[in-house]
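Q: Give me the 3D complex with glycine.
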Amino acid sequence: MAEILNVKYQGSPCYDIVFDKSFDELAERIKELGFSNRKFAVITDSNVKPLYADTITKLVEGISSKTVVYEIPAGEENKNLDEIRKVYGFLIENKFDRHDLIIALGGGVIGDMAGFIAATYLRGISFVQIPTTLLAQTDSSIGGKTGVDFDGYKNMVGAFHMPSLVYINISVLSTLSGRQFASGFAEIMKHGLIKDADFYMWLIENMYEIEEKDADVLIEMIKRSCDIKRRVVEDDPEEKSKTGGRALLNYGHTIGHAVEKYKNFSLLHGECVALGCVASAYISWKKQMLSMEDYYEIRDMFVPFNLPISVEDLDVEEIVRLIHSDKKADSDFIRFVLLKKVGKAVIDTTVTDDEVRAAVNEIIWDEKFE
Ligand code: GLY
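A: Here is the predicted complex, encoded as structure tokens.
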């Protein structure tokens, strides 16, 4: 029997997140939402389509009037308006109307793109998220932010549009590479670090079972992580809070995004988030929020989960420049997320460029990491 978390929007129940070890309940859950005898468009990518598109199509065949599949070429470089335009054409060709349904089948890029199509096609139609990466299952499929990159800026164009259902089947994680699994795990660690010290300790205590992908441990881990994200997005659904709320989810992302861009997306998002978490913990230590022991413990806890804590060939000045050009940076100061302690993040607007330089130097690989 699947487990459920309901996410509220503006105080009212909005959508369920289903945690399951199979897709057994998928058709029934979609039917319960009132989508019987409607057209379904499964939007997926070239990596995921050969793995799961047929399975999903067969499962929903009995409840839809027609199910069609659209494949977007895999990769962040295709998260743009040109690809979105092609999908609009496909939906028009297949005569999709406002009562039909989009099913996002894939990782974070597909969830964001399919969600954006659902938000904008005919001024908004419903969509279901079936996240297939750990990162999407634990983070990007929840919260309703949808969008695409524009002119080199990540998620520059988008809309808030809540899914009708998020269906998490952990068995799909078996086809994920070790690197992709670790990348998703970085956001899970981040959730513990910013909001829940007990969860952070639980992750460390269950390190072995997580590595072994023990099904019950994975369900508990993903559910607890989603619950943290749920609490944050319920309190600040549209990222309006300047003092906390959703902005706290950016812990590790200010430096992480700059590294991601500097490395031309050759590192995975979660790998850059792990590096950003280490650098931001370093700043937190230098600002006397965290103790030295806390800092080293946080840094070293990424290692057994196969995440980097240092990287070669970073140009410190270029990272500082990229941070200032990020769309989230204010013109005068950077809105950093720092840690007061494990489980308690705060927004800090006093971080200087010199403090950033020192933190970036800390994550540049040298002999101390041997
Ligand atoms: N879709 C991701 C978020 O809303 O945070």
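A quick observation: The first helix runs from residue 26 to 32.
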